[in-house]
From TrEMBL:
<dbReference type="GO" id="GO:0005783">
    <property type="term" value="C:endoplasmic reticulum"/>
</dbReference>
<feature type="transmembrane region" description="Helical">
    <location>
        <begin position="312"/>
        <end position="328"/>
    </location>
</feature>
<dbReference type="GO" id="GO:0006643">
    <property type="term" value="P:membrane lipid metabolic process"/>
</dbReference>
<protein>
    <recommendedName>
        <fullName>Transmembrane protein 195</fullName>
    </recommendedName>
</protein>
<dbReference type="GO" id="GO:0008610">
    <property type="term" value="P:lipid biosynthetic process"/>
</dbReference>
<dbReference type="Pfam" id="PF04116">
    <property type="entry name" value="FA_hydroxylase"/>
</dbReference>
<keyword id="KW-1133">Transmembrane helix</keyword>
<dbReference type="GO" id="GO:0005506">
    <property type="term" value="F:iron ion binding"/>
</dbReference>
<dbReference type="InterPro" id="IPR051689">
    <property type="entry name" value="Sterol_desaturase/TMEM195"/>
</dbReference>
<keyword id="KW-0560">Oxidoreductase</keyword>
<dbReference type="GO" id="GO:0016020">
    <property type="term" value="C:membrane"/>
</dbReference>
<dbReference type="GO" id="GO:0050479">
    <property type="term" value="F:glyceryl-ether monooxygenase activity"/>
</dbReference>
<feature type="transmembrane region" description="Helical">
    <location>
        <begin position="349"/>
        <end position="370"/>
    </location>
</feature>
<feature type="transmembrane region" description="Helical">
    <location>
        <begin position="37"/>
        <end position="58"/>
    </location>
</feature>
<dbReference type="InterPro" id="IPR006694">
    <property type="entry name" value="Fatty_acid_hydroxylase"/>
</dbReference>
<keyword id="KW-0812">Transmembrane</keyword>
<feature type="region of interest" description="Disordered">
    <location>
        <begin position="390"/>
        <end position="414"/>
    </location>
</feature>
Amino acid sequence: MAAGLEFESVSRGFRSMFFMLSPNESSYEKVEDVPQYVQQAFPFFVGLMLLELVVGVVKTGGPVVTISDGITSISAGMISRLPLLLMRGCELTAYMYVWDHFRLLELPWDSAWTWWLTFLGVDLGYYWVHRSAHEVAVLWAAHQVHHSSEYYNLSTALRQSATQQLASWIFYLPLALAVPPSVFAVHIQLNLLYQFWIHTELVRDLGPLEWVFNTPKHHRVHHGRNEYCLDKNYGGVLIIWDRLFGTFAPETDKVIYGLVVPINTFENLSIQVGLFLTFLNGPSWKPGKTRLGDHDDNPKVTGKEVPHDPSWTLPLQVYVVVHFLLVLKTYHEPKSVVTPRLFKLLNKIACLVCFLFFVCVCLLLPVLHLSDHYLHEACSVVVPTHTHTHTHTHTPVVSPSLSENETPAGGPAVNTNALIVESTISQPK
Ligand SMILES: [Zn+2]
Ligand SMILES: [Zn+2]
């Protein structure tokens, strides 16, 4: 009996990774009853990553993940969950507020129709969350964390931003006018979990499924820095949104992964906050260009790019792995440091911060619409250097293709020396 229940629980956990749960087994009346699907998925993350490692060695003759990149990605995933210590998650908190105060009707929580409608609604909401994260620079500054790896494997899926939730909640609020929070709480988690398995190079083509679903093949394109890949394939579970809104691109040439200008570091702090130097235009924008910039100005991809992979001594690698495993163990055995009352208070403060952040972005939008003044302010930031100075061009504010004193069409004369941001990135040798 116990073994049967155990098998059922493992089966549900595994199927939740692929959105293979039926409405019957994933509908709940109260938010409190909704399982922590993402939290419970940890063993499946590890299991699937190990499986990918083994199959990768068999198929390609070498590891599909490096220690430096893999640990950086998983660590970023851990950092991205830290805000949840203070709050339930912006999306759910804001959602429940709108539901409590402004709902227009109450769809039944135990209806399959409600389940499927929410499935579509959350996935459509995710499409616009994701598209905005690529087209508005302040949102891109958060989302670029996910794209900063030059590798593409399951660990890349975990490389997430700690700040992205600050703005994404707004896109799901229309659902709160009718869909119960418990149904939304299920779908927002399953939608996220589905996107784990599509980060692999080992699954090449899924035939007819490619028409409807977001698959590894489609999402590889989304992570590419080849020109044909930029700003394409934003879908979460379904790819139909991209086909509908004109942002779909099939995989053709070999995909070269990572940011247009590679970040060349494994320092998580730099990765998390590095691009907050810029604001509201698209990542490829520069003076005299339209809001989203001109992809012709980006460095050309030759197909021979080699990922950043500094050689580490064996003792250093062993140290990093042991240290990482100890942190991982601590991460999964958190001691409760806040009382329920303090938790509620922190939750409210965090929600207020999120709201103010969003209002500030809206208010600053016209002011910061990149006047020449702002441009020079943003572009001439020079951070004091220490240890190792690396001349690093961040994509949104830097024009790698501008030559000295070149005057961009329609824009002011730009001293490219001022466009170079000297970062404090200390790179392992
Ligand atoms: Zn993206
Ligand atoms: Zn991805």
